[in-house]
């Protein structure tokens, strides 16, 4: 039938079912989540009136500057996301459209997801403590570290927790602060051996960091391209792969001597 119609007529005929399909899709929930920049928290300070890092069994330094962990906030696992929401998210720089299964495991209830995120945070905190004490050559038998961060789940604050513990216990090792007095933000998982892992959502996290005063952002090296995509003005990226080189980069940044890598 379409072969006997003019091009204009054929387009018109095809457009009818397409418009109808889009009309239906506009009201049907889609399998996406909409994410935006979330809160940040200075791990060297307090969050909701409670110290994020509490150390016992060893003297603690008075620190300057900030080490801000970053988050994203996404529509809930049971939220309905429409075609209009998706189109709006695609055209905005302060939000991102992500497959729901990449944000929330498929088939899990809200309570199961919350429990999973809490478990990941606990595991991240344990790994961060192990990595920090191992870097400093200290034993967990002598030094106890408690990490408290309300209403945040997942493993992506691991690197910042580790740096915060090191800064409170030893600083840069020469009497100064790891931050050099700066507001430094970042993201990244960490394991007990100090390896830093990717986390996702870094383009939104850089916006949250700059909004809250950061001038430097520590980003897992594999996510440099994502971080550069919507990089806010005035925010410097430092790629990281492991704890030792991250500390070395911060020391070089403060002293002005040595190599500070860039994306």
Automatic annotation (TrEMBL):
GO molecular function: ATP-dependent peptidase activity; serine-type endopeptidase activity
Coiled coil, from the record: none
Lon proteolytic domain mapped to chain residues: 153-236
Superkingdom assignment: Bacteria
Record's protein name: Lon proteolytic domain-containing protein
GO BP of this protein: proteolysis
One Pfam family here: Lon_C
């Amino acid at each position: 039938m379409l072969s006997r119609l003019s091009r204009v007529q054929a387009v018109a005929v095809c457009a009818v079912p397409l418009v109808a399909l889009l009309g239906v899709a506009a009201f049907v929930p889609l399998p996406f989540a909409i994410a935006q920049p979330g809160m940040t928290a200075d791990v060297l300070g307090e969050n909701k009136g409670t110290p994020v890092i509490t150390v016992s069994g060893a003297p603690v330094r008075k620190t300057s500057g900030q080490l801000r962990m970053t988050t994203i906030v996404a529509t809930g696992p049971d939220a309905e996301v429409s075609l209009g929401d998706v189109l709006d998210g695609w055209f905005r720089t302060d939000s991102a459209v992500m497959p729901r299964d990449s944000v929330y495991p498929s088939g899990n209830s809200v309570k199961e997801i919350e429990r999973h995120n809490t478990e990941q945070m606990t595991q991240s905190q344990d790994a961060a403590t192990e990595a920090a004490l191992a870097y400093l050559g200290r034993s967990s038998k002598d030094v106890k570290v408690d990490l408290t961060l309300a209403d945040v789940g997942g493993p992506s604050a691991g690197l910042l927790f580790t740096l915060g513990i090191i800064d409170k216990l030893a600083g840069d090792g020469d009497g100064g602060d790891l931050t050099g007095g700066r507001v430094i933000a970042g993201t990244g998982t960490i394991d007990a051996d100090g390896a830093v892992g990717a986390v996702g959502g870094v383009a939104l996290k850089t916006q949250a960091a700059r909004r809250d005063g950061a001038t430097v952002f520590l980003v897992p090296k594999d996510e440099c391209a994502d971080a550069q995509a919507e990089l806010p003005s005035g925010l410097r990226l430092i790629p990281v792969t492991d704890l030792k080189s991250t500390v070395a980069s911060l020391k070089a940044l403060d002293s002005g001597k040595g190599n500070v890598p860039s994306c």
